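Need tokens for this chain, all 114 residues.
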Amino acid sequence: MTDREKLKQRFLRDPLERRLGGLAATLARISSSARNSESPVIVENLLDEAKHLIEWTAADAEAETAAELVQIQRLITLWQKSWKTAMQDKTQRTLLSTLAKEWSDKALQSSGLI
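Here are the structure tokens for all 114 residues:
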């Protein structure tokens, strides 16, 4: 069993609210890492993780929340494709950091944990 499969099984055991909270935490780490990290791999891995967490969560969310999550997932995919170039531009790093913080706030709000 791969690490991703183990993560998926563990993640899906949690209730939806906790999964949304976990997604919010991953998105917050993207925000922080995009702004501060010297390693593009850290952000790449977090983007990939967030994309999968959304995939595993959206199906169980209410329609409006699921639609927002799918939109975020699409944007994450675009950032993944351009990250190696974008990470070299401070403006792009700041943009991803800002967007990821907004996404994190939305996920946390949807979770009802706050």
